[in-house]
Structure formats: C-alpha cells, structure tokens
Automatic annotation (TrEMBL):
<dbReference type="InterPro" id="IPR036388">
    <property type="entry name" value="WH-like_DNA-bd_sf"/>
</dbReference>
<comment type="subunit">
    <text>Homotrimer.</text>
</comment>
<keyword id="KW-0238">DNA-binding</keyword>
<dbReference type="GO" id="GO:0034605">
    <property type="term" value="P:cellular response to heat"/>
</dbReference>
<protein>
    <submittedName>
        <fullName>Predicted protein</fullName>
    </submittedName>
</protein>
<keyword id="KW-0805">Transcription regulation</keyword>
<dbReference type="GO" id="GO:0000978">
    <property type="term" value="F:RNA polymerase II cis-regulatory region sequence-specific DNA binding"/>
</dbReference>
<dbReference type="GO" id="GO:0006357">
    <property type="term" value="P:regulation of transcription by RNA polymerase II"/>
</dbReference>
<dbReference type="GO" id="GO:0003700">
    <property type="term" value="F:DNA-binding transcription factor activity"/>
</dbReference>
<keyword id="KW-0539">Nucleus</keyword>
<dbReference type="InterPro" id="IPR036390">
    <property type="entry name" value="WH_DNA-bd_sf"/>
</dbReference>
<dbReference type="Pfam" id="PF00447">
    <property type="entry name" value="HSF_DNA-bind"/>
</dbReference>
<feature type="domain" description="HSF-type DNA-binding">
    <location>
        <begin position="148"/>
        <end position="241"/>
    </location>
</feature>
<feature type="domain" description="HSF-type DNA-binding">
    <location>
        <begin position="13"/>
        <end position="107"/>
    </location>
</feature>
<keyword id="KW-0346">Stress response</keyword>
<dbReference type="InterPro" id="IPR000232">
    <property type="entry name" value="HSF_DNA-bd"/>
</dbReference>
<keyword id="KW-0597">Phosphoprotein</keyword>
Length: 295
C-alpha cells in the first residue's frame, strides 16, 4: 500500500500515483470496477461504490479519499471526458504504452519547479520592497510619464539597453541577464516609466509572468533565455510564450472546473449508494426480526 501523503509533491509520490493508477486500470481482474475504455486512451470507473470501498485504499490517502484522488487526477493533468461514464483521460495515459507516463511525471515535476520559482520571486519582491520602502513612501502620484501600450518585455529591454541609465539598471557582463544596481533610484524614476499604474508588486508579477528568474542571491539580477543584449528580436519569443502560457492556463482552468464538478457528483453518488445500502440492511434486519417473532 502506498502512502502518497508522505513527502507529498515529491517525485516519488508523483511516480507512485501515476504508476499505481496505471497498474490498477491495466489489471484485467478488476475490469468490472475500473478498466480501459474501448479506445485505450482513457479509463472508466464502472462501479464507484466498489472503487471507493476497496480501490482507493491502495493509495493510502488520509482524510477525504475522494477529494485526494481527484486532486491527484487534477495535478497529473487528467480531464473528465464528457460522457455518461466516470471516464478520465490524459494524453500520456494509454493502454499498452506505460513508458508514456514518464512524460506526465516530467510535466508534474516541471509544474512544481515553476511553483517554487513563483514563491522565490514573491520572497525577492518582499526583500526589494523593504529596501526601497523609504523612497516609495515619498513618491508623488504616478503621473510623470504617459502610459505606453507596448508589451512589458519590450519596454524592459529598451530600459536595460539604454546606456544613460547604466548606473541604475544595465546588462550584466555576459549580456544574458540584467541587474538593478540602484533599487531606490530605479523605484523613484525608471519604474514609473513603464506605466502610470505600475508599482513594485506588479513589476515583479510581470517578471514572473514573462518567465524571468532571479539568478544571483547577492544582486538584483534577473534572466530569461530570450532576453539577450544585441538580440532584441528574441523578445517576441518571450511575448509569444506568454500568450501560449495564458492559453494553457485557460485550458487548465476549464479542466479543473470539470474535474471539480465530477468530484462533487461522484461524492453525491457514493453517498446515495451508502444510503441505499443502509436501507436494504435495515429491511433485512427487520425481516429477520419479524421472522424471529413468528417463531
């Protein structure tokens, strides 16, 4: 029996869930409860009650087993198929091709890394805000410069590439990252040139949104593989990647919504089955009691 709650989110628990689910679906002896669909590109839970009573225990979930199971389905990229069955699919979960689940494991680990990076950027932002707080509190309203509708990476590239502000912000020696040398002056003047409404939290949010990473713990140094001195055309790749990321997030949101709805319906069906079972057991006990009375 697997304990997926121990070191939850680790590569071991990720691998355990997907491999255990694959083995469970692939087991011919349990086809009346859970099996591959006819296409072999999805699996179907045929008997929710038996699945709930016996199969969920294999994962050793703590607390609410149903919520945990659906949470893992979601984090591993499964989606609810719009059919009359409890049918779920993942492009890398295919009958006869168990090697494909390594792709799912890689995607989940990549998602964990991106989450860790976002948390790191949040901590960096807090440190930056503390360093410039005195200056920020003294700033007048954001009305010094006209608003520009150009994309954030384009404006950032132009700012970093401007030699007149090298004492405040500039390319690193390698030209593959940029450094904010003077955070207070950056906050006082340059930051406000992006937009009348741009402030420190939003600036760091945009760095994260466009996949910039802080790369030196001792400097305010940030990098993106497509943000390179002398190659301003690469900025279009950053912008394009961000649009693709938004599309993926919208698809993920739709998948999560459908899985959430399926989870609630699944729980409701299990509860109804439990009630029906309890009623039948009561009827059996009553009939037995009546039989004893007649004797």
């Amino acid at each position: 029996m697997l304990n997926l709650n121990e070191n939850e989110g680790s590569s071991t628990s990720i691998s355990n869930f997907i491999t255990t689910t694959y083995d469970m679906v692939d087991d011919l002896s349990s086809d009346s409860i859970i099996s591959w669909s006819q296409s072999g590109k999805s699996f179907i839970i045929w008997n929710p009650e038996e699945f709930y009573n016996n199969f969920l225990q294999r994962f050793c979930f703590q607390g609410d087993n149903i919520n945990s199971f659906f949470s893992y389905l979601n984090s591993h990229g499964f989606r609810k198929i719009d059919s009359g069955n409890w049918e779920f699919a993942n492009d890398n979960f295919v009958r006869g091709q168990p090697h494909l689940i390594n792709n799912t494991i890689s995607c989940v680990i990549e998602g964990r890394v991106l989450y860790d990076q976002s948390m790191d950027m949040f901590k960096v932002r807090k440190l930056f805000e503390r360093q410039v707080k005195e200056v920020e509190d003294q700033l007048p309203p954001h009305n010094s410069y006209p608003t520009s509708k150009r994309p954030f990476p384009t404006k950032l590239y132009e700012m970093v590439d401007d030699p007149s502000s090298d004492a405040i912000i500039s390319w690193s020696q390698s030209g593959r990252s940029f450094i904010i040398w003077n955070p207070k002056e950056f906050c006082k003047d340059l930051l406000r040139r992006f937009s009348n409404t741009l402030h420190i939290p939003l600036f760091f949010h945009k760095l994260q949104r466009f996949s910039f990473k802080k790369i030196d713990p001792k400097k305010w140094e940030f990098a993106n593989d497509n943000f390179v001195r002398g190659q301003c055309h690469l900025v279009e790749i950053i912008i394009s990647n961000e649009k693709e990321k938004i599309d993926q997030l919208l698809k993920r949101y739709d998948r999560q919504k459908k899985l959430g709805e399926a989870r609630e319906l699944f729980k409701l069906q299990i509860e109804e089955m439990k009630k029906t079972k309890e009623v039948k057991e009561q009827e059996v006990r009553l009939q037995h009691h009546i039989g004893l009375c007649k004797l």
